[in-house]
Each structure stands twice: as C-alpha cells, then as structure tokens.
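quick one, 216 residues, struct below
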Amino acid sequence: MLYESNTLRLFISKKRMLRFLESLGPWSFVGFITVQALQVVLAPIPGEVTGLLGGYLYGPFLGIVLSTVGLTLGSCAAFALSRIFGRPFAEKFVPEAAMQRFDYLLQHKGLVLVFLLFLIPGFPKDYLCYILGLGHLSTAQFLVVGTVGRLFGTILLTLGGNYLRVEQYGRFSILLVVAVIVVAVAMIYRNKLEKAFAFLHSKSLKKSGQIEDTKN
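---
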C-alpha cells in the first residue's frame, strides 16, 4: 500500500518534502521529527533526503538535534514493535536475506559489535533496529548505541543540507566526494567486515562457554 500511494513519493522527493514541511508553519519542527521517525519505522524508506532537509531547513546545530530526536524515536519504535510482536512482525519490514545474514545478532549481547555495525556507512540500520528487537539487548542499551552510532551519518547529511542552504556548493561538493569515497570503501569491505563481526561473535560465545569449541 505504501508503494502504491503518494507516501513513498513524499519521502524520496526533496521538493515534495520541503513543501510539506513548510506548509506546517510553526509545527514544522514536530513534522520533521515525525517524518524522520517514520522513515525508520517504514524501512526501507531512504533517510538521505530527510537528513539533507534537516540541514537545509534548520541549519547545522538545530538540524542535527531534530534529526537525532526523530531517528532515535523511530529506532526505538522499530525496536519496541519487533520486541512486542516478534519475528513474524519484523519480517514484514526486514527481507528474509537480511534476517538470515544477521541472525547471529539475536544471540549477541556485546555493545561494541552492535555499535560498529551502526557506524558502517551504507549499512541497513533501519533493518538492524528490527533485528535487535528480537535479541538480548535492553532498551536502554539499544537507545545509547543506536543514537550514538547514527550520529556520524546524521552530522554529514545535515552539514550537506546546510551547505546547500547557504549556497556553499564548493564545500558541499567536497563533503559529497568524501562521503562517496567512505561509502564506497565501506561497501567494498562490508562483507568482510560482517564476516569478521560474526567470527568475533562466535569467538566470544566460545570464550563464555555458551557453545562448545569444535576442537575439543
């Protein structure tokens, strides 16, 4: 239904989103936070458009604050919904391939690994919120890791939007090139990173005695 309606078009069109938020007047802050939250819950709605708009509409500082509030609310909502309604509900938003690929996270309790996954550019963080809701992390742990882990990407997108707002196209171009390089490198090595994280997870389980070492 989402894809057949104008809702998706609203999220992926910067002009449509801009007109929508401006039409809210003094309520645009609330509207923007709601939009940021919904683009997480309605994964895989792209968050790049809304992230840029935060900087374009509200400048660097307020844009980062509002985006962070919205992303945190959306992440917690996805996490909570997945925890309450279970795997069948999460699978409505997360493709089976992604669910299987990160199935090991359902048994993982380490915060460092989850934090690193949130830091990887181009990583499906919205999917991760639903997957982690099925695991062992507490809501408080997820709140801290998810919020801090998303912050780097939020800052980059907000700065980019702000550069467009003040017409500093040179800085925007430099930021865009840097972002593309970082994302490209991350995408090239993503599979290796994910395999390394899965290996570290397995090793930590063996060390804690939760699974038997096959060598014994």
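Residues 76 and 143 are 7 Å apart (CA to CA).
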